[in-house]
Amino acid sequence: MPNDLHTGTDRTILADLVLRPDATEVSRSRHVVGSVLHRSGFDHRSDDTELIVCELVANAVEHATSEVRVRLLRCGDTLRVEVHDDGEGDPEVQAPPPLSESGRGLRIVDSIADQWGVVLTAGGGKTVWTEQPW
Questions:
Q1: Is residue 112 part of a domain?
Q2: I want to staple 73 with a disulfide (CB 3.0 to 4.6 A). Which of 36, 45, 68, 80 is the partner?
């Protein structure tokens, strides 16, 4: 799994959102991403991408105290999602107990995204990214 941000020159920013660290922002991020994907002709993977964004934003809101930045990019023939927050730690896929109400977000992301990774940023914080074919 690659562990860096896409740095190619063939990238187009489709959406760049700054969200409050509040659980109500999860549904807002899903709505905005769904609208952008519909306008961009990416309806065939819209549900998957909206779910990825919801899971990553929910994790960021739960574990960070900062604003959460969501970027949706087209990088050549790849759709990329980036979610940045100031939270510490390196997110990992968990194996929660069967009756647990949380802990499955990255497992869901891992099962949907073609690839994903985490980039820790200088001074704290991280960006979790995913990629899917356009």
A1: yes
A2: 80
